[in-house]
Amino acid sequence: MSDSVHPLEDLALLTLVVAHGTDAELDARETRALVHQLALMEPRLGHGEGAFDLSEWVHRAVEAYGALSVVELDDVVARLGAALDGTERTRALEALIRVAQADGVFHTMERTFLRHVAQVWGVTEAGEG
Asked: What is the pTM for the complete model shown?
């Protein structure tokens, strides 16, 4: 993945990791939450003139997800954290938690991954109940 990836594409990729990668299942509720959370974050992250619409960010994230390695995943987490300010990192983490909880089960792998994201971003975890 290139260094010029837009934050929405990185966030979309991380939502896919949370929704599918941590438990190898993609529940319809997770899919709805994923789209909803990205739509909520889109105005906050801005996308500038000539940018893709939300469906294009998700499409690009799906393509990247198919070839994502663990090392690249760590790079995405770090890159997105660096692209966001403190408030945006907190909101992005909360969005990821909502996607993880959308299917009614908060899996151990989801918790572990989200703790890792929180640690890298220097964000106190919220909404873990």
From this structure: 0.84
